[in-house]
Amino acid sequence: MTQANDSFVDADRVLAAKGKSFYWARQLLGPRHASRATRLYRFCRYVDDLADEDQSAVRSKKNIAELRESIHSGLTADAVVQDGITLINECQIDKRVVLDLIAGVWSDTELVRMADDAHLMQYCYQVAGTVGLMMCKVLNTDHPEAEPFAIDLGMAMQLTNICRDVQTDALVDRRYIPSALVNGLAPSELIAPSEEHKQLVKQAVATLLDVADDYYQSGEKGLSYLPFRARLAILVAARIYREIGQKLRRQQCEYWHQRIVVSKAKKFMITIEVLLTAPLTLKFWRYPSRHDAKLHEPLAPRDSKSLLSVQGHAN
User: Fold this and answer.
1) How many whole angstroms separate alpha carbon 34 and alpha carbon 27?
2) Beta bridge partners of 174
3) Chosen CATH of 3-304 out of 3.40.50.150, 3.40.1650.10, 1.10.600.10, 3.30.70.560
4) For residue 301, is pLDDT > 70?
5) 166 and 248 in contact (C-beta within 8 Å)?
6) Cβ neighbours for 161, distance < 8 A, ≥ 6 positions apart
7) What is the mean predicted confidence (pLDDT) over 301-308?
8) CB neighbourhood size of 70 (10 A)
9) For the chain, domain boundaries
């Protein structure tokens, strides 16, 4: 087995274990795009895990700093990072986007208490909107006009993650829900909310799910820029992810009972619905007239200016 095959096998294992929605939707991609998307997922998961899998924040920061230097220099002894760098070069991914991802992961090693909506949306761009931008390149989409929609889809999925994982995050002393939505509740108060706080917390989750829906709607509009099979695959992945939020709504946003998952049967139903109905709609084939600039207003104050320079689109 060649080194390239070894690398893909490992990436496939990571995707199967940690990215079940994307693993399912990947079946719709052609071999080249499936391989690239799988490798990208492994790299992004590796980056994310640097903040989550080390008990020491000091060591996590050291590892993230070393990764940042590797991206700058293009040199590393780590096989996963090397494959990520190879993919970045192969697909001509802007390094500033990768560095934005790393900056978002770095922030997870600090005290996580989202102050307001803008703070949350900036974080969602860093850790997920960037992945949307990278996926455009991986799927051979060079339309600058596609980029804001790709950002939106990534941000929508991240908001879904945050709503589903309120308890999981709170258990490690993180609160991504903006302070204003929960009156500054501490993470410990979100693990199993008291009767006094339940309605407040449920409304906060419902509010973020509504915001996510706005970004899903925008993200789906931009799928027409993707190649046909990629368009179907990403739409299936997005609809499966959106189902997590819809399922959470059906249980009155009470996230503390159990972690929401989408069954294989439901994934199959979503896939069939997409395959049978999406190609019959005009928006599946037609480029959107424009992107809603209001969706990116919270991103403007970011310290990093790379979002503004990378997008290169007119709203």
Assistant:
1) 8
2) 112
3) 1.10.600.10
4) no
5) no
6) 128
7) 47
8) 17
9) 3-304
